Fold:
Amino acid sequence: MNVAIDGSARQYWLGALTGGGPTGVPRWSQETRPGVGEHVEPIPVRLVDAVSRTVGPLRGAPLLAAHAVVLAALSGEREVTTGYAAAAGAAPLPLRLTTEPATWRALVQHAARAQERLQANRVFPVDALATELGRTTPLFEVEVDLHGGAEAPAPHTALRLSVEQGAEELQLRLHYRTDVLDADSASRIAGYHLTALAAMAADPDAEHGGRSLLSAQEYAFQIDGLAGPDRELPAERLHELFEQRAAAHPGAVAAEHGGRQWTYRELNARANRLGRALLARGLRREGVVAVVTERNLDWMAAVLAIFKAGGVYLPIEPHFPAGRIATTLARAGCALALTEPGSDVTLRQALDTVPGAQAVLFEQAYAEDHADGDLGVPVAAGQLAYIYFTSGSTGQPKGAMCEHAGMINHLYAKIEDLGIDEGTVVAQTAPQCFDISLWQLVSALLVGGQTLLVPQEVILDVERFVEQITARRVGVLQVVPSYLEVIAAYLEQHPRELPDLRAVSATGEALKYELIQRWFAVAPGIPLVNAYGLTETSDDTNHEVMRDVPASGRVPLGRPVRNVRVYVVDENLDPVPLGAPGLIVFSGVCVGRGYVNDPERTRQAYLGDPHRPGQRLYRSGDYGRWLPDGRLEFLGRRDDQVKIRGFRIEIGEIDNALLRVPGVRDGAVVVAERPDRSKHLVAFYAAGRPIDPDVLTAHLAERLPEYMVPSLYHRRESLPLTANSKIDTNALRALAAELAARDEDEASPPATTTEQMLAAAFAKVLEVPVGEVGRHDHFFDRGGTSLTAVRLVIATGRAVSLKDVTRQPVLAELAALIDRRSAA
Structure:
């Protein structure tokens, strides 16, 4: 049906229906069956009179303006849509309101104009126009009736608010769906309206955005009631608690790597000798010491040695480009770097450009014959413990500084929630520059447990990995979700008991609900812990311990751990209404000191806690909301920071490196999704002529870790721009998807039986239709990773090895390799 009754009315309703979808209210009910509840809130006579005196009759534009502010707070949106009854008994129509006008008076004037425009156009077949536009969802979820209608809400309406004349005073009557809101949340929403009206009457020319709608009770609950429980931290530091264990059980095994074991006595002695070697080279309190090694026992001794000597641990992976290592050392003010032969090649290149910094080989330090007794250097709880560098949007990495108190608090959270105790074996699997590597390395040492450093070649072979964690009786394991998926896939094909594994933690990426289901299908008795936190907050701040698949269908982040406070706030750092989306910020012992030698970025992110004077607050880039059971739910990133394979990066740093490639005039990198919803990086660049992708990769690899190097490159004569002349990244993301689809259309079908077998395996692990896999497809260009390559090996029945896939990633070439072996 083509609705064309009145031109101006049609234009009005076109704008209303295409300007935005319905504005919802936060789901705050644990009731699953729909029903209707009612709440009545009296409006004090003095408030009605005060509003009337300052901005006009309350049952008009003032209440509508207050309603807009409440909806904006509940939804986190500046523009809202509510159902509005234009006359007594009339069916509600969608009304668009904005909270952009700064003052209460200006907002009331805007609401009055919006009322007038809707009244002028209300005789119009709105539902028919919505059908013409293809709108199949309800036009609004919340209704407001200023004329006193007492009807219950329509089935699609979550909340209906009306104003009625009571026996002595006006009253707000709320009807609400009980599967959306409970009685307390309905009462809070009524209170928000009265608070907004009171602020409006008190000072109509004040900015409405500067006033919180929360009651004192709700404010106290969000600041204190949702905080992690208090715990008194030990007076000793990490290394001192380890020393106590070494004295009590010197012969117990502390760590194992590649078949080598060190007892508590030997680990402590080696750490003490290294610590004295550092002091002999002039290490002072909070002096920064880099550790540039593979993940091995010397790495563990080095970390403990630095803490014992009062220094600051700075992890650097040996394969990082020399330029990045040099930048990291210089920014951190690092003068000493512990390293080993074979891990020091790029380090020594970097040291040539960092005056005053020197490398110290482990074998050299051990050979100096320092005493192996405990050092006894005083280390305070507020002393700096470590610096982890993460990607920076300005093109320069930023080094997050965390203190001993925050570190020890996090270690005890892991010990408590993952059940680490004497004798527990904790698997160390994460790369050194991933902040989770630290707790994996040392948490067991606090309670008399054992750390198993799993070699990288074992991690890349899931069969060997599962065999090792079983044979070595690993009790606690943490991996990124993408690797947990590999483990689950292996166990689905090769079911086995994991008798000693008491907890598995997933972190670094969003944990999918489907993966939780798969995990409990293959390992029903092993809890799965969804861990959430940031490098700046001493690692994880929230743990969700799941012993079964969540019935809600959600994957929450869990509650804050002990001594940690998490707030969900607005742009003014005021808590938003319970259940509403907002910015996640952190307070308490977990908050680090700032970014090393970077005062500007520290000033932007590290603030004083306005709710607890004297405490630090970290403002993250994450959005989330509280759930009715007190758990936190993650809603997404605020900015261009993303996580790739568990590592947090900022796109700006990669853009900066791309622009330094000779011949590149302009460039931008976007995050694209593969068919399996995993993320990868796609680079677009403008250049006079095409640049070989291998050349681009080589240039970027000189400056960036491999996980920050894009997997695809596309040349354009120029890059699309927005209206304000900035690169249009939304257009580039759409273009990346379009180009990926075009490449799939050009696929040549598999030609042999072996190619067809491989095509089926490609399709399975990449989660694409088998008909879209061609014989010339490159496994890694199609979105394969080292983890999906492991899954491919399993899917082929081990007809190929991981090395085969790496060396022959093109389907036809890999098939030919299999055929040659079969013929031989």
User: Anything to note?
Assistant: The longest strand covers residues 616-626. The chain has 27 helices and 32 strands. The first helix runs from residue 7 to 18.
